[in-house]
Amino acid sequence: MNLAPMRYKDYVWPHNPETYTISFKRQVAVAKVPFGRYGMQDLGMSYRVMEGEGVFAGKGAYDEFKKLASVFYQGESGLLIHPVWQASQAYFVLLELAQQPLENYVRYRFAFWETSPLDTSLIRVSGGSGNAGTGTKTASSYYTVKRGDTLWGIANTYGVTLTALLNVNPQIKNPNRIAVGERVTLP
Predict the structure, then answer these.
(1) What is the mean pLDDT of residues 134-161?
(2) d(CA 152, CA 76)
(3) Which residues share a beta bridge with 100?
(4) Are 77 and 115 in contact (CB under 8 A)?
(5) Is 110 exposed, middle or buried (CB count within 10 Å of its CB: 0-12, 13-18, 19+)?
(6) What is the structure's pLDDT at 1?
(7) Cα–Cα distance, 154 to 145 (Å, whole number)
């Protein structure tokens, strides 16, 4: 089977990594209630971790590793397109050499923390008109709350602070209480 190359931001792997794993974690809050029992609340999925190992081999292998390292140094999240997993926004959180690098052979390890899979059906754009590329944002985006969502999780998914999210949503009086189907404006 011929897989598409893995991509992150503007970097395209010349050869897909040899191994990778994807880990999921669900956050659950536990509170003790009377009579020795416990109440649990599902806080939803937290970030996913994709990590693995790869090799650059042949002429210019170390130069290719340096290109990948320059993408790592950029910081901020970016679009991660994986050959078999769905595309997502992710942070490039780990890049390390797995051995002494050689001019024509570099073994490396990497890790990405995915903020969320991309699901454009969750974002609605409404109102405003303007010229693309002028640097002004005239349209507003919003997210429709689903079961298990938290305001903190929504802020984390879209890369904004909870404070910024609350500032553009004055209708939310208690950030710990949002209802399924409620529309949350994104800054």
Answers:
(1) 72
(2) 18
(3) none
(4) yes
(5) buried
(6) 57
(7) 9
Q: Around Cβ 73, how many Cβ atoms within 10 Å?
A: 8
* Chain position carrying tokens 């984390």: 156
Under a CB-based contact definition with an 8 Å cutoff, are residues 51 and 6 in contact? Answer: no
Cα–Cα distance for residue pair 140/185, rounded to 1 Å: 7
One-letter amino acid of 81:
I
Percent of the chain topping pLDDT 70: 86
pLDDT tens-digit readout, 81-103: 888 777 788 899 999 998 887 88
Query: Which long-range contacts link 135-142 to residues 24+ away (Cβ below 8 Å)?
Result: 140/185, 140/186, 141/185, 141/186, 142/183, 142/184, 142/185, 142/186
Token pair of 43 as six digits: 């806080």
145 vs 175: CA distance, rounded Å:
13
Structure tokens at 77: 């999240």
For the chain, the residue count is 187
Residue 120 pLDDT > 60: no
Q: Are 114 and 48 in contact (CB under 8 A)?
A: yes
